[in-house]
Specification:
about 90 residues; mainly alpha; elongated
Length: about 90
């Protein structure tokens, strides 16, 4: 994630980094909601928001550096899998 952001910044896409910092904050808060508060359904909805932000970040980064955007694809796939797991936990722990 950091290498991708650095690539965008070095190619003059500094204005594109707001979405990087935003998704990073949302990512940090997800851990608190899921593990700390055990708000499983809320955490799933929060994860959907994070997925949308990362998809938007990839589209934004692609305009500056296609390689930087491609580096974020494993992160997006991980979020899809994490969403599946999060929903499973939410359904099994009502």
């Amino acid at each position: 994630m950091g290498i991708s952001a650095a690539m965008v910044r070095l190619k003059g896409g500094r204005e594109k980094l707001w979405i990087f910092w935003g998704q990073l904050a949302v990512n940090f808060l997800w851990s608190i909601f899921f593990f700390g508060r055990q708000w499983y359904f809320f955490s799933f909805a929060w994860l959907v928001l994070l997925f949308v932000l990362v998809a938007g970040m990839i589209l934004s980064f692609r305009k500056v550096s296609p390689k930087a955007a491609a580096l974020q694809l494993p992160y997006l796939l991980w979020l899809a899998f994490a969403g599946y797991l999060n929903l499973g936990v939410a359904l099994l722990n009502p």
